[in-house]
Amino acid sequence: MENKKMVIAKEMDPKIWSKLPEHVLEYLLSFLPLKTFLKLRSTCKHFKTLLFSPPFISKHSPSSSSSSPNSSPFSSFFLLSHPQFPRQYPLFDTVHNNWRNLSLCISPVLPSSSSLLLSSSNGLLCFTRPSSNSFIITNVLARTSRVVKFPTLPFAFESLTLISLPNNGYKLFVMSTTGSSNNHVFVYDSLVHSWIQFGGFDLILNENHNQEGVFHNGYLYFITPEPYFIVYMDLNTGKWQRSNFELPIELTFARLVSDGDKKLCLISGNGSNGISRSMKLWELDEKFKIWVEVENVPELICRKFLSVCYHNYEHVYCFWHQGLICVCCYSWPEILYYKVNRRTWHWLPKCPSLPDKWSCGFKWFSFVPELYAFV
């Protein structure tokens, strides 16, 4: 009996939680295991908002971790979209260098089966849902989403790029041929929830339709089809300019990639008569306004990549992912990537869950989960 009384006496009065200052409660709850914390979201509105509290963000954000990036509970991934994986997106963990057993499932946030993944940026994914004439911006980790209606109806678009901004907002760049044969550009700003229409640049697309725009130093960059040159657009004013940085000669294809801030790189095929004999990586020296050759892709790797795309260079696209420059082919289930800090080339192994009989349609995305990426 005495032991029982001692246990009862030591039990905490549940009412004490309601008397704790809010910042103390947030600090205590931030020490819960991530899995337990995420389950709390459905219990009350206040717990759902705790995902974005300073203590939780500071504890679980990779950028604020005091140890190595591997210590963060959030990893970074290559995300594969393919028609043979309807509504399931296989994930390759680029921190631990292996395929995850579980794919990313979007059913809770996108119940429609007609949704198509178009772009990704800073933990956000952009889908299109033609049946409802809208785009869907979602943070899968936080299970939040926003419906963005098409700017006009009917609306036919050929290129979309999702751009995350430093002010915790984002923009959608959409190139459309609605209403005439000339291109028009629509830019959606998440901070004001509205579209603005600008004039387009007619020479951007054609063979580059698999390549998104490249955001660098506040501008969105594109390479035109042959004869190749670079154009860029100010997302605020809609003004287009042609770059005065001359491209290397004897290009058979060219794709841009950027870390968003310091580096603007170029992946090129080099040869003659439209046939690539080699591939090179270049970096822009903005001070001297020239492209500097960084690497010549090793011969065996180059031969394999050129053989799998079979000189259909319109299938080639590139993107930046956590210090990696990724070169992909729409018709091939592997990624060729370059580790910038080690200056080495590697192949990503084929997804083990991919059927033996696969077809074209491989679209890869950089996916870095961020709880605090607002939609």
Automatic annotation (TrEMBL):
Signal sequence segment: none
Biological processes, Gene Ontology terms: SCF-dependent proteasomal ubiquitin-dependent protein catabolic process
Domain F-box: 14-60
Record GO terms (molecular function): ubiquitin-protein transferase activity
InterPro entries, alphabetized: F-box-like_dom_sf, F-box_dom, Kelch-typ_b-propeller, SCF_F-box_component
Matching PANTHER family: BNACNNG10540D PROTEIN (PTHR31672), F-BOX DOMAIN-CONTAINING PROTEIN (PTHR31672:SF12)
Protein name: F-box/kelch-repeat protein At5g43190-like
Source taxonomy: Eukaryota, Viridiplantae, Streptophyta, Embryophyta, Tracheophyta
